[in-house]
Amino acid sequence: MALLYKADPQRGARWRQLFAEHAPDIEFRQWPDTGDPADIHYLAAWQAPDDLATLLPNLKALLAISAGVDQLNLHTLPPELPVARMLDPSITAGMCEYATWAVLSLHRDMLLYRNQQQAMRWDEHTLVPAGQRRVGIMGLGQQGQAIARQLQGLGFALSGWARSAHQIEGVECFAGAQQLPAFLQGCDILICLLPLTAQTRGILDGRLFEQLPQGASLINMGRGGHLVEADLLAALDSGHLAGAILDVMQQEPPVAEHPFWHHPRIAMTPHIAAMTHPDSAFAVLLDNIRRHQRGEPLTGQIDRHTGY
Ligand code: GLV
Which of 131, 41, 61, 99 is nearest to 218 (CA)? Predict the structure, then answer.
């Protein structure tokens, strides 16, 4: 029985070692060297190969190597195939670090100070205490909750929004489309961590921005598909939004002419908020294989209808 790995080839070498050491009964194969496809029961992947059912006829489960699974094009996969997201503690830790850095950068006006430095200007701006800065988190799963805990420690005023109702100590929680306007009007800094689904594609658009308070900022660390980029540009250029920090883009990397590259009130990073680390993710992946072998549900198994 074999597992096929189809993700970052450099980290593949470490995955191979970990399987050899801790799970020698599972043969590790790295894309594109599939060997006899009939042996392959598990696929660990960032993106699935086309025509999976024909290519891997005995596939039992697809174990994503990422926290988000939209890039797998779920609708093209066999409908009964179990698919699990990667709940690697390193991903959560990375998302917490990035969110903290981005919130503090916006809170402490670092986009403005970056521009001032370039213009050789030494102007100070009044500090807002963290308790008066309202940070709203869209997406209250494992990562959203960990980020909320971290930001609580820094004293920010926190709220959260998700499709379904949540109760999180110290976080004012809102749920569903009906409560979205009430949530948005209390966000000075909005963080998007949502899964990308048919319902959330393009959710960060002009209508949403209008409902944020004047001078609010955006952090997108979900997927590029959440953001209507032209609407962000309009909201920044009209002065309604003050700034944006973006780790994900519609097209990665953006084309050379993309207006965000040189925008004074946008900071971009190349989808690095978090990364799956084989050393912490291996235990999660192996546990899921063992669960599947015992006929138990997978950790992080997604609902094929909702897509997350
Ligand atoms: C990265 O974007 C992930 O979904 O893990």
Answer: 99
Other Cβ atoms less than 10 A from the Cβ of 79: the count is: 8
223 is catalytic: yes
Question: Which domains are seen in the chain, by residue range?
Answer: 2-88+276-294 (3.40.50.720), 90-268 (3.40.50.720)
For the Cβ of 2 lying below 6 angstroms from any atom of ligand 1, the answer is: no
Mean pLDDT over 72-91 rounds to 93
Candidate list 149, 263, 271, 291, residue with the active-site label: 271
Indicate whether residue 68 lines ligand 1 (CB < 6 A).
yes
Determine which one of 85, 134, 223, 226 is catalytic: 223
User: For position 6, what pLDDT does the model report?
Assistant: 97
271 assigned to active site: yes
Which of 284, 307, 302, 297 shows the shortest CA–CA distance to 65? 284
Rounded distance, CA 112 to CA 215, Å? Answer: 13
- Checking if the pLDDT of 306 tops 90, the result is no
Residue 222: CB within 6 Å of ligand 1? no
3-state secondary structure of 22: helix
Is the pLDDT at 32 greater than 90? The verdict is: yes
Reported as a pLDDT band with limits 50, 70 and 90, residue 69 is: very high
Q: Is the pLDDT of residue 305 over 90?
A: no
Distance 67 CA to ligand 1 centre (A): 5
Question: Given this model, what pLDDT does residue 250 score?
Answer: 97
